[in-house]
Amino acid sequence: MIVENDGIADTLELRRGSTLARGEVMGEICHHLSPFQVGEKPIAGDTVIAKDLTIDSLAIMDMVMELEDRFDVSIPMNVVAEIHTVDQLADTILKLHARR
Amino acid sequence: MGLFDRHAGLLEAYRDVRTTGYDPFQIRMERVLSPTEAIINGRKTLLVGTNNYFGLTFDSSCMEAAIEAIRAEGTGTTGSRIANGSYNEHVALEQEIAEFYGKKHCMVFTTGYQANLGIISTLAGEGDQLLIDADSHASIYDACKMTQAEVVRFKHNDPSSLEARLRRLGDRPGNRVVVLEGIYSMLGDTAPLREFVDVCKKYNAYVLIDEAHSLGALGETGRGLCESTGVIDDCHFIVGTFSKTLGAIGGYCVSDDPDFDILRVTVRSYMFTASLPPSIVASVRQALKVVKARPELRKQLWDNVATLYDGLAAQGFKLGPEHGPVVGVHLPDRMVAIGFWRAMLDAGIYVNVAVPPATPNGVSLLRCSVCAVHTPEQLQHMVEVMTGIGRQLGVIDDRTRRVVGGAR
User: How many angstroms from the chain centroid is the CA of residue B145?
Assistant: First the structure.
């Protein structure tokens, strides 16, 4: 079901000609998170933002505001609360962007 | 996992704070002498961190009103307005605050925190959108946890950031409620309210403003930022507190909305807590009279703000962006802030220390709140003490003093 929905969203996006590349979103997130990296361990899709990095909850919310403006989407606070990994954050942005 | 394990990080930080010898979050005022002085650790201490902007906690007319009310009506109401009923004085206080703002309706709450918590979480419900400033007070954030509405933060004091978020909502159904504060409690900065109101009008959003720190301080008659910026009529809901300028405790919300009174049977923080005791209601009513009758207190407050703010700025301290009854002094990190705070207490001056996560952008601050009845000498002395400590701790240097001091 999820796959099917994603397919529809992708098609709609292509029709509108405003597809947002996942790589671009991931790159932007990693850019914001890099100051909070621990040791040499790279930031990846499965990185748990609040646990694997040194970022605190307020800084996460501030980063979300930056990402919102970069990709012109709004991510409600209750949605942010359910996001744990970098992948989940990227997926949320892509999904909201597709719905615009 | 134990019940307290999730607080391990906080416990460690708190332990760090306490190694300085005093616990800034459990200071004991052995005796409060006046709005500006108390005995702390056996020593007479200057109070510059109590939000007592007009110094009315010891105003004789307010104290007498409270004493008389206790004799007439007892010490407490022992229940909520909806269960035990309202006293005449509750109703009179609400009428007086509504009249003060020129609004039709007012509800008073037992604390300012409860006013924000209850009003904000109830006004915006399922399907609505609540838009809050990123630097909002904890009571606003807590309301956001309780509401069924969708909550989005916008950048602090940035009307264009709010506008982007309202624009993105497009033609989605739901009421938009925008929450702002007159003066922000950590850095003492004011909201660009007129610009915010313009954006809200454009997108048909309701405006709620919390004037907790600006009541008395701003506006020709002390009604706050909504008055000084000339937008009272455009603020649909104005919230405030009795615990700062009015020198007691309690909160209020005023509005012109014809259905406002329905909140009396929907706002849980109003319905399920005991109402304000007669003595508080009486002193607040009197304090409001004093605010109206003595505008010179506002002038004294701002003169004192200038003495402290300009004095510290001239010595090279990094401060909040503008003059305000709250003067926030930036310090490099948590431990310097704690050390500075303790050194000031040793020198007989009490201010607040504010460290992450209670502060915006992870800053560490000494938070000073100025009182109309501070004397210029008290504040000049404070600048001298802070300059000495600041130099010892390497927060400011002598060069700054020479360059900036030369201009004074």
Answer: 20
pLDDT per residue as tens digits for the range B346-401:
999 999 999 887 788 889 999 999 999 999 999 999 999 999 999 999 999 865 55
Locate CATH 3.40.640.10 in chain B.
Answer: 59-293
Nearest-by-Cβ selection for B153 from A57, A61, A78: A61
pTM (predicted TM-score): 0.92
Residue B19: is its pLDDT beyond 50?
Answer: yes
A57 interfaces chain B, CB cutoff of 8 Å? yes
Q: Is the ipTM of this complex over 0.95?
A: no
Handedness of CA A77, A79, A83, A86 (dihedral sign): negative
Report the run of H or E that residue B241 belongs to, with start and end. strand B237-241
User: In whole angstroms, what is the distance from residue A48 CA to residue A70 CA?
Assistant: 22
Residue pLDDT, tens place only, B232-260: 999 999 999 999 999 999 999 999 999 99
Architecture of domain B20-49+295-405: Alpha-Beta Complex (3.90)
B258 touches chain A (CB under 8 A): no
Residues whose CB falls within 8 Å of the CB of residue B400, separated by 6 or more in sequence, listed in order: B315, B316
Q: B59-293, what's its fold? A: Aspartate Aminotransferase; domain 2 (3.40.640)
Q: Which amino acid is at B407?
A: A
Strand ranges of the sheet holding B37-40, from the earlier edge strand across to the other edge:
B29-34, B37-40, B43-47, B349-350
**Which CATH number among 3.40.50.2000, 3.10.450.350, 3.10.310.10, 1.10.1200.10 corresponds to the domain A20-99?**
1.10.1200.10
Query: Is A72 within 8 Å of B361 when comparing Cβ atoms?
Result: no
Q: Is the minimum CB–CB distance between A59 and chain B shorter than 8 Å? A: yes
In the predicted structure, residue B303 carries a pLDDT above the cut 80: yes
Query: What is the pLDDT of chain B when averaged over all its residues?
Result: 95
Length of chain B: 408
Q: What are phi and psi of B2, to 5 degrees?
A: -75, 160
- Cα B79 to chain centroid distance, Å, stands at 27
pLDDT digits 0-9 by tens, B84-97: 999 999 999 999 99
Catalytic, out of B121, B139, B185, B269: B185
Q: Show the beta-strand stretches assigned E in B316-395.
A: 326-331, 349-350, 352-354, 364-369
